[in-house]
Structures are given as structure tokens and as C-alpha cells.
Amino acid sequence: MIDCLIIQRYILREIAATFIGVALLLSLVVLSITFIRVMSSVVEGDYPASIAMLMLFLQSSANLIYVFPLMFFLSVLLALGRLYRDSEMTVMHACAFGPELVFRTVGLVSLLMALLFGSLALFFIPWSNEQDTRLQDEVRARTEVEGLTAGRFNSVGAGMLVYLEKISDDRREMLKVFAYGESADGTQVLSAESARQQLIDGERYMVFFDGYRYEGDPAAPDFRIIQFREHGVRIQVREVVASERPRQAMSSLALWRSSSAAHMSELQWRLMVPISTLLFGLLAVPLSRSSPREGRYARLFEAILIYIVYSQLMFSAKSALGKGTLNPWPGLWWVHALALALLLWLLWRQQHLPGSRRRKVAA
Q1: Which of 132, 194, 201, 339 has the fewest Cβ atoms surrounding its Cβ within 10 A?
Q2: pTM for the full model?
């Protein structure tokens, strides 16, 4: 019994060490892709650079949860593959620690990881998407210079459009500015050499420097052009209006209570995380079996190919379920059933290999 615990702890330690390395590598890939997408949105002026890091955290953390099953799958595969490569697994089998012990050990840790990842998928993902949506709603109502982009018209506050040719390096001052807006005094058209936003008595103003203000109809006799050194326009701050929440931001309980096909597809998509963690953790046990001559990465290509096929089938089933062309039952469950059938076939196949028969006879 003590020997079994020692072997189990050794296997778990190998899986944990490998998981750390795989998680760091895949996390870097996910963070890089999300960082590029967030920075593109900042450059396009969708939201200011001051909240870019928060947006990066919210979006990348949600994306990483969906990658956790792949991290765990590769970790178990590589850890057990090393044991086969260094003939440590052969020594364990010779000492009466057979594949059943390895399967039980991996099954236990797979179940624990499935519960952990499942909790994150069911509760953290909708919270993260809700915070992301709420933050974008607030950004649309804010009027910060950091969100303005040179070379295009920018909406500032309620009813003001600002065009600027250039913005200073510290993003505090706008250069060569043209503005059009509505106020209590009527329509205002201004052009100025520079402008900046300032807080005056708790109110936000757009202050223009060295420019002209155009009043009235250009075709009317009372049309006026007023030159100024400094001119301030109060910005009417827009109220934060909650946009329609996407189904990714809905709570799992709300999705469960809904009868919508799109909501059912989102719920089953979240449930994919714990189910695939358990299935692929167990699937890595027969896939990792190899001879010392084959090396640690002998089954890596097969494993990645299986995961790609599984993921593509899940995407197709989710899309079909969301469009209503696929019933909630079988929904996405048939893809999990295929993965389970593959697991059972691999286990049956290894039990009928010549080497397995010889070990049973020797026992």
C-alpha cells in the first residue's frame, strides 16, 4: 500500500511539473494573440489605452480556460511518455505496479482538474464576459483624450464630433483640430491649432487654443467668424447605457433555465471544459504508451490530431445547435460520445496486445 502511494505521488509530481511548462507555453501563445487583438482595438479608437491591460486580463483569462483541457492532455501525455522512454514504466510493471494503477492515478487527478476547470468555465467565464461588456459600455460614455484617434472623426461626449490631425506623444494635447457640436447656443463649428480636455469646477470642458469659431449660416448676412485665443466648450457626458448582453455574459443558471437553442449551445460549450478534461486526461494514458526507442514525443502528433478533430467537431456542433439546425439532444454530447468510444477502443486494444497477454500469464 505504501509502495503504491509512493508510485502515485511520483506520477502526479511528473504530471504537475510537465503541466507547469505546458501551461506557460500555451498561456504565452494565448496572451500574445489576445494582446494583438486588444492593441488593434486601441489603435482603431474603440477604447482608450488606459484600460487596455484590464481588457487584456478579462479577455485572455476567459480564453485560457478553454485551453486548460489541452494543457492537461499534453501534460499527462508527455509525463507518461517520458516514463516509457526512460523504461521507468517497464520497471513499474515488472514490480507489479500495472497499467491499472496508472489509470486510477490519472483518473483521480483528471476528475479533480475537471471539477476545477468546470467551476471556472461555469462561473468565471460569464463573470469575465460581463465585466468586459460593462467596461465597453462605460468607455462609450467616457470622453478621454486617450480614446481619440488622429486622422478620423471621434465622438466626444454627447453630440460633439472632433477631428484632429495629430495628437501629442503624451496623448494630452490635440493638434490641428476641427470640431462640430450641438449646445444650448446652437450649432458650433470650430477650428483651432490645438485643444485639450480640462476639468473646471467639476465639469469637463474641451478647451480650444488659437482658432476660429463660425456662427450662423454661411449664406446668411449675419454669418460671423470669431477669432479667439482660448475657447471652452462644455462636454455633455453621456449616460452609461447598458447594451444587450451577449449569451457569453449570461450566467450558467440563466442559460440552463432558457429554452433558446443559442443559449443551450453556450451552456453545452461551457460544459465541454470539464468533460473534455476528464476524457482527454484518461485518453492520454493509452496514447502515451510507447517503446523506449520511439521517444517521448512519439504519440504527440496523434494526440494533437485527435484533439483538433474533436475541437472542429465541437465547433461545428455548437454552430449547428446555435442556428437551430441541431436539436439540444444530442447537441454537443455526441462528440463527447465519440471521444469516449475512442478511449474504450484504445483500452480494449491494449488489453489484447501480445505484450499484455504475456504479462497476464506471468502474473
Answers
A1: 201
A2: 0.73
